[in-house]
Amino acid sequence: MTINNMKNNKIALFVILLSSILLSCSSKAQIYPDKNWSSNQNPEAKGWVEPEYSIFNRYVIDSTNITGLVIIHKGEIVFEYGDIEENSYIASCRKSILAMLFGKYVENGTIDLNKTLKALEINDVSKLLPIEKKAKIKDLISARSGVYLNGSNGGDFRRYAPKRGTIEPGSYWLYNNWDFNLAGYIFEKETNSNIYDEIESQLAIPLQMEDWDKTLQRKNGNLEVSKFPAYHMWFSTRDMARIGLLMLRKGKWNNKQIIPEKWVDEIITQRTSYKEAQKNVPVLKEDGIDLGYGYMWWLIENTDDYRLKNAYSAQGALGQNITVYPEIDVVLAYKTKSDYRRRNSIQTQMKVMKKAIEIYNPN
């Protein structure tokens, strides 16, 4: 063996050892809960400072109707309020969870996002127009179908819809429950599986959710208006936080890829800018945070706060929220139990999303 070969072998060995050390350090830094979340006993040492910490706590108590809230930093609880164990209705956060379920089936070819409603033989109580049948699955999950039929449940922005038949599918954003409910129907039709079974197998079991109860889950809606029901969901706040942490970790849980990493990136890729969303739905200008849209997840845009850069969110009526802040390794989850018939305005929900990370100042 020549001296040069010996040198090359030593360099190669050094590179392998260095890579192993870096990989070990990286995996060590990635903390996940097992059956229970761990709480950081000294959050101030990690940058969660007083007096902002106490001010935020008082804000949640005095100025919101939130019934459970948790902040996760680097995989551990740094802030907790209310009952984070109770399962309750999470409203439109269901759509973001459905988006995650699509991943493995898009990856293995079971679901073709370019398949049209015509090819899927979709129709409803009110018949689809020929132009509407051109809409693709990807148009449904990005709220750009161009189909403005009533959904079987309310809680959307259909009141801002253009006249039916005037919009080319894919060219215009409008948040309409008909799109999302149909996306759920198509998911079950194409995979030959039930949404709630998929949540259990894809998410609840591998993430070791503490409170998941499949018997609580049920579909609902006025089927005389639309034959596609809403797939409502009931989660606890701390299990919602597991969903957020999975997204933050690009679909990986411990050493297993639960959701394809490429699909997580697709979900949070901008399909609609905040400017287009505000133009089509003017009320969004009043929210306090500029929001774009991906695949059934809201994207935080137009911010100078580094903590909010590249953040994204699942949001639901009354005050249901999972927000992921990748730049600071943080997940926020909070909930307002609908049984109490109390709600948070959209503006309040946006304030909570901002105020939660104002506590964090590592400098």
UniProtKB/TrEMBL annotation:
Query: What is the designated name of this protein?
Result: Serine hydrolase
Q: Taxonomically, what lineage is the organism?
A: Bacteria, Pseudomonadati, Bacteroidota, Flavobacteriia, Flavobacteriales
Under the heading Pfam families, the entry gives: Beta-lactamase (PF00144)
Q: Which residues form the Beta-lactamase-related domain?
A: 70-341
Q: Recite the UniProt keywords alphabetically.
A: Hydrolase, Signal
Q: What SUPFAM superfamilies would the database entry show?
A: beta-lactamase/transpeptidase-like (SSF56601)
Keyword Hydrolase appears in the UniProt entry? yes
InterPro entries according to UniProt: Beta-lactam-related, Beta-lactam/transpept-like, Diverse_Enzym_Activities
Q: Which residues form the signal peptide?
A: 1-29
**GO MF, one example:** hydrolase activity
